[in-house]
Amino acid sequence: MDKQGVLGIFSYVDLTVKAVRKLKDEGFKNLRVFSPVPNHEIEVAVGEPESIVRFFTLFGAMLGAACGVGFTVLTSSDWPIPVSAKPVVSIPPFIIIIFELTILMGSLSTLLGLLINSRLRRNAPRSMYDPRFTDDKFGVMVTCGKDNVKKVEEILNSQGAEEIKFDGV
Amino acid sequence: MSEQNSLTYAKVNEDVIRMLDKPTVKWLALFLPVLGFVGFGMFCFLYQVYTGLGVAGYRHPVFWGVYITDFVFWVGIAHSGTLISAILYLFRASFRVSIYRIAEAMTVFAVLTAGLFPIIHLGRPWFFYWLFPYPNQRELWVNFKSPLLWDVFAVSTYLTVSSVFFFVGMIPDIAAIRDKVKEVPRKIAYTILSLGWKGSNWEWLHYSRAYLYFAAFATPLVLSVHSVVSWDFAMANLPGWHTTIFAPYFVAGAIFSGLGMVITLTIPIRKIFALEDYITLDNYDGMAKMIILTSLIVGYAYGCEFFMAWYSGSPAEWGQFYYRATGQYALFYWIMVVCNVLIPIPLWFKSVRRNIKALFIISIFINIGMWFERFNIIVISLSQGFEPGAWGIYKVSWVEMGITMGSFAWFFMFFLIFIKTLPAISISELKEILPVPKKEAKHHG
Predict the structure, then answer these.
(1) Distance from A42 to chain B by nearest Cα, in Å?
(2) Among A77, B20, B120, B356, which residue has the fewest nearby CB atoms (within 10 Å)?
(3) Looking at CA atoms only, how far is residue A163 from chain B in angstroms?
(4) A16-69, pLDDT tens digit by residue?
(5) Are A34 and B436 a contacting pair at CB < 8 A?
(6) Are residues A36 and A59 in the same domain?
């Protein structure tokens, strides 16, 4: 195991953001920041690419619309029974079904996208998580080579980390 | 939101998780009678299944009665939950934060309750699955041109999407509870429900995006659902039903009744759990303003119906509305007008909007008024259609009343279980509107 995890725990957002910036300046790219709330400053400092959940949403919604069209048109044509003197394939009422299926499948695929993407990259080993992160503390976890542990610890300390934890990753 | 400024991140966790402490005697004193009423409702339903739909008071020509009224009422109640959680989220209205979880729970439980009524209303409820389009041996498919089938799609989509929205919104809060509770069974339950949430930037990134899309989907969905419910009536050629204003009229009414129910539910919860710091008078002020708006729309629709009946020159249409205001059901009609149009008028004054007792009383009247609105639309229209020879009177039977009471109990049962097991106030969103903890004080807020 040549990689090591170092976790700094902070009480303030501004210190957390400064620590992230400093670590990135020093060339540490493998960072994970924990916070009890979503925070824009942290998001900017870490500089993650835009979430790809949006493609799941788009794909799911389009699939839903296609299913809605296929389902209503094909089943109606399968055994054509004219109702209320309306065409067998009657677009206005089918739009309601298409609309509902678009929303249903779009939402379910968004859920799927959220679950898959949040779990794809392993967050952190259990020992690198602190229950206070859902309460009022912020955490910065750095994954680095063993020879850099000392340096990371110094940076975290200099930026005001209140506690530091170590673990193999 | 000045009243919430005294709160800190840690205090929010502590206060919300405190609500999940062991049930008190007061809670049990509420829960047990509620269970009793649920039992009575079930007995009435079983009696109806055993005896036949005849016990439901249906008489020619009224074959849609209290059950359909209840269905529309509960679907309506559901609407303000999505309004508060999704539409106000998109508009960034911060007064929604402390009440939206309760409103969302209300949505899910109200749709669950509403979903029972089309089944209760069936002569052979065990064949309810015939409504779903599934391949069968005779290759017959459902009729997609029927509004009742639109209902199946709209209501089941609404139940699914609002449940997902409700659950996803709770994930970070369930993780917060998981990290606080000590007892092993509770810890295991919350660990499973939290789906391994750790609050890392990676999770928040996808979470915030997904939440935005859920809100963006839920917004048109909520408008479509009650429109579809209104078309159950508007598509039929019957005086009092066959009108184009039904969709906006029903949506406004739904939001109006839902807001009434949110106020009815949150006021006792706020008192019992001492949540005055969270659910503030500003929250109620915002909801009361929306009640004024929707009450005006509903009032306008009542007037508009009469105007169109007169202006159309259709004797059947005008006869129907004249009958509503002066016939055998006139009392119900005027209860509706008084409760929905006149009683909300004091809310124009700020002092009333910020008076908890007054709000509670007004909200109860709104609930009553909106139930009668649905009753009037459904029953009075059916009892006097086009053909005078086929007019008739419908009287509510004890079985229908029992099932209606049971449905209220069923709704409150879920709600009482919810406030003792899941976070009734959003911990993470509430923290978002608090000042961010910063070392350098000048950057506060």
Answers:
(1) 8
(2) A77
(3) 16
(4) 888 888 888 888 888 888 998 888 888 888 888 888 899 999 999 999 999 999
(5) no
(6) no
- Which tokens belong to B158? 């609404």
Contact B201, A32 (CB under 8 A): yes
Does some domain include residue B104?
A: yes
Q: Which chain B residues touch A107 with a CB distance below 8 Å? A: 160-161, 164-165, 213-214, 217-218
Contact A13 B436 (CB under 8 A): yes
**Torsion angle of the four alpha carbons A67, A68, A73, A75, in this order, in degrees rounded to the nearest 10:** 70
* Chain A closest-CA separation from residue B234 CA (Å): 14
Same domain, A111 and A68: yes
Interface test with A, best of B206, B217, B231 (most A CBs within 10 A): B206
Q: Whose structure tokens read 């709600």?
A: B415
Element (H, E) at A8: strand A3-10
Asked if B224 lies within 8 A of A76 by C-beta distance, the reply is: no
Nearest-by-Cβ selection for B179 from A51, A76, A131? A131
Domain count, chain B: 1
If asked whether residues A64 and A12 sit together in one domain, one would say no
Helix (H, G, I), strand (E, B) or coil at B337: helix
| Chain B partners within 8 Å of A86 (Cβ) | 145
ipTM of the shown complex = 0.90
Residue to mutate among B144, B174, B181, B212, with most A CBs inside 10 A, is B144
Query: Distance between CA B41 and CA B403 in Å, rounded?
Result: 4
Q: Is A107–B161 a contact, with Cβ atoms under 8 angstroms apart?
A: yes
- Identify whether B42 is part of a domain: yes
* Per-residue pLDDT in tens (0 to 9) along chain B, 445 residues: 444 557 788 888 888 888 888 888 888 998 999 999 999 999 999 999 999 998 998 888 999 999 999 999 999 999 878 888 888 888 888 778 888 899 899 999 999 999 999 999 998 999 988 888 888 777 788 888 888 899 999 999 999 999 999 999 999 999 999 988 888 888 899 988 988 888 888 889 899 999 999 999 999 999 999 999 999 999 999 999 999 999 999 999 999 999 999 999 999 888 888 888 888 898 899 899 999 999 999 999 999 999 999 999 999 999 999 999 999 999 999 999 999 999 999 999 999 999 999 999 999 999 999 999 999 999 999 999 998 999 999 999 999 999 999 999 999 999 999 988 999 888 888 888 888 887 776 544 4
Decide if B118 contacts B151 (C-beta within 8 A). Answer: yes
In a domain, B441, yes or no: no
**What is the span of the domain harbouring residue B336?**
2-433
CB-CB contact of A160 with A20 (8 Å): no
Sign (positive or negative) of CA dihedral A24, A29, A33, A38 = positive
* Pairs across A and B, CB distance < 8 A: 183
Q: Given an 8 Å threshold on Cβ–Cβ distance, is A123 in contact with B200?
A: yes
Nearest CB neighbour to A135, from listed B142, B154, B176: B176
Instruction: Tell me whether residues B428 and A123 touch, CB distance under 8 A.
Output: no
| Contact check, Cβ <8 Å, A76/B141 | yes
Range of the domain at A31: 3-49+122-168
Smallest Cβ distance to B144: which of A15, A53, A72? A72
Residue A117's Cβ-side half-sphere holds a number of Cα atoms within 13 Å equal to 25
- Confirm if B291 and B255 have CB atoms less than 8 A apart: no
- State pTM to two decimals: 0.91
Q: Structurally, how many domains does chain A consist of?
A: 2
- What are A109-165's pLDDT values in tens digits? 999 999 888 875 555 566 778 888 888 888 888 888 888 888 888 888 888 888 888
Looking at the fold, whether A131 and A109 belong to one and the same domain comes out as no
Q: Same domain, yes or no, for A111 and A61? A: yes
